[in-house]
Write a structure and sequence with these properties.
It contains 13 helices and eight strands. It has 400 residues and is an alpha+beta fold. The longest helix is centred in the last third of the chain and has 29 residues. The radius of gyration is 21 Å and the shape is globular. The relative contact order is 0.11. The structure holds flavin-adenine dinucleotide.
Length: 400
C-alpha cells in the first residue's frame, strides 16, 4: 500500500508552519515528504468534512470509517510486514504520520490500540498462525483492540491481577474482570493480562500471561462505565468461564509481565502523550501571536519550547525502538513530562483564549477547551500514573 495524497487543499497548521516543525530528529527527504503527505491528507479530509479537529482524538475520537480510510493510505499497521498487509515502515516513519494526524485532531481511537501496540506485539511474539489471523484485519483498520490490564483492585500494582486463565485439555478457561477498558464497548478484541499460575508473593511478577480474546466470545460481558467522556467510552469487561483455544496465548506462558512491560514502553513514549491538546494549543498560540501582547507571547513561547523538547525526546524513543533497544525509562520520562505539559497547556490556553469551555459549542475555541477539560483528569492517570512513572524513573537512575 502506498500513500498517494495530493498537496493540501487547506493551509497546513499555522503553528506547525511558524515553528517549521520539521522532524525533531535527523530529517531525510523521505521523512519530510511523508510528513507533508500526512499533513495534506489531514487537511484534505478536514476540508471534505470527514472530521472536525478535536482534543484527545486518539483516545476519544472513535470513527471506524476514518480508520479504514487511513488504512487505505497504508497508515494503520504501518510497521507491520507487507506480507501481513502492513506497510513495512519504521517506527520513525510511523511517528511522523501519527504526529501530523494528532496535530490535526483527527479521530484515531478506533485503530489506536491495535496499531500502536497489539499489532507490533503479535508480530513480535505471535505464532505464524496468530500473525496470519490478526495482522491483516488490523492493517485494514477492521480489527479494533482494547487493553485489558487494570482490574478493580489492580491498577498501579499490575502484578496483583486476579483474572485467571486455567489450562483445559484443548485451551484455556478465563474468569475475572477488567476495568477502565478504553474502547471496551466497541472493540473487536481484547489483549488480556491474566494469572496462569498461582500467585507467589516471593515472585510477584511470575505466573502472568497475555491472552487474545475476541470480544464476541461467549462469557464476555461488557458494561459501559459512565465518565466525563460519555457513556460508552470506558468499560468494565467481565469474563465468566470464557472458553478459549490454545492459541489464544500470546507469547510465552508465564512471561506476561516482561511482555506487558515492553508493551508499556511503546504505550507511554508516543507523541499522543503530549499532543492530546495540540488543536487547542494551536488556537491559543495563534491568538497570542495575533494579539502581540508581550505576556501572552511569553506564555505561548513557554508552551512551544516545552513542546519542542518533548517532540525530540519522543522521536528519539521511536528511533531507539527501530534499533531494537529497550525504552522503558525514556518512555516513562516522555509520559511523565508530556502529560504534565498537557495539563498545563489547558490552563495556558484558557488564559490566552478567554472563552468559557463548552464541548458542544460551535465556537472552536470554546469547544476544544471544553473537550480538553473533559479529558484532563485522565492525562496523568491512563497508561500508568505519574507517581508510578516517577518511581520507575528513579529506579532506572539507580541502576544506570
Ligand atoms: C481514561 C482512562 C483510561 C484508561 N484506559 C485503560 C485501558 O484501556 N486499559 C487498562 O488496562 N487500564 C486503563 N486505565 C486504567 C489506568 O491504567 C489506571 O487507572 C492506573 O494505572 C491507576 O490505577 P488505579 O486506578 O487502580 O489507581 P491506584 O493504583 O489505586 O492508585 C491510586 C493513587 O495512588 C497512587 N499510587 C499507587 N501506588 C503507588 C506507589 N507505589 N507509589 C506512589 N503512588 C502510588 C497512584 O499514583 C494514584 O494517584 C485507564 C484509566 C483512565 C483514567
Amino acid at each position: 500500500m502506498t500513500a498517494t495524497t495530493a498537496r493540501p487543499a487547506a493551509a497546513p497548521s499555522a503553528v506547525v508552519d511558524r515553528l517549521a516543525l520539521d522532524d525533531p530528529g535527523p530529517a531525510t527527504p523521505q521523512l519530510r515528504e511523508l510528513r507533508l503527505q500526512a499533513r495534506a491528507f489531514a487537511a484534505n479530509a478536514r476540508a471534505a468534512g470527514r472530521f472536525e479537529p478535536m482534543c484527545d482524538s486518539w483516545h476519544a475520537g472513535w470513527d471506524p470509517d476514518f480508520s479504514r480510510l487511513l488504512a487505505k493510505q497504508g497508515w494503520v499497521g504501518m510497521t507491520l510486514p507487507t506480507e501481513y498487509g502492513g506497510a513495512g515502515r519504521t517506527a520513525v516513519e510511523r511517528y511522523v504520520v501519527v504526529e501530523e494526524l494528532l496535530a490535526a485532531g483527527a479521530p484515531l481511537a478506533a485503530h489506536w490500540a491495535a496499531d500502536r501496540q497489539m499489532g507490533p506485539s503479535i508480530q513480535r511474539l505471535g505464532t505464524a498462525a496468530q500473525r496470519a489471523r490478526w495482522l491483516p484485519p488490523i492493517a485494514r483498520g477492521e480489527c479494533s483492540f482494547a487493553i485489558g490490564m487494570s482490574e478493580p483492585d489492580s491498577g498501579s500494582d499490575l502484578a496483583s491481577v486476579r483474572t485467571r486463565a486455567q489450562r483445559t485439555d484443548d485451551g484455556w478457561r478465563l474468569n475475572g474482570a477488567k476495568v477502565w477498558v478504553t474502547g471496551g464497548y466497541h472493540a473487536d478484541a481484547l489483549l488480556v493480562l491474566a494469572r496462569t499460575a498461582p500467585h507467589d508473593p516471593a515472585q510477584r511478577h511470575a505466573g502472568l500471561s497475555q491472552l487474545l480474546v475476541p470480544a464476541n466470545t461467549p462469557g464476555v460481558t461488557v458494561r459501559p462505565i459512565r465518565s466525563l467522556l460519555g457513556p460508552q467510552h470506558l468499560a468494565e469487561v467481565i469474563f465468566t468461564d470464557v472458553v478459549l483455544p490454545a492459541d489464544a496465548l500470546l507469547g510465552v506462558e508465564g512471561q506476561g509481565w516482561a511482555q506487558v512491560t515492553a508493551e508499556l514502553a511503546v504505550e507511554r513514549a508516543g507523541p499522543e502523550r503530549f499532543l492530546s491538546t495540540f488543536p487547542l494549543v494551536e488556537l491559543a498560540v495563534s491568538a497570542a501571536c495575533r494579539s502581540g501582547d508581550r505576556s501572552a507571547l511569553a506564555l505561548a513561547g513557554d508552551v512551544l519550547a516545552q513542546l519542542w523538547t518533548l517532540r525530540r525526546m519522543s522521536f528519539r524513543v521511536a528511533a531507539r525502538l527501530d534499533r531494537g533497544r529497550s525504552a522503558e525509562v525514556p518512555a516513562a520520562l516522555v509520559k511523565e513530562l508530556g502529560t504534565r505539559f498537557e495539563v498545563e497547556s489547558v490552563d495556558v490556553a484558557r488564559r490566552l483564549l478567554g472563552v468559557e469551555p463548552d464541548a458542544s459549542s460551535a465556537d472552536p475555541a470554546a469547544r476544544l477547551l471544553g473537550q480538553a477539560l473533559r479529558s484532563l483528569p485522565a492525562f496523568t492517570l491512563r497508561g500508568g500514573t505519574n507517581e508510578i512513572l516517577r518511581g520507575l524513573i528513579a529506579r532506572g537512575l539507580r541502576t544506570a
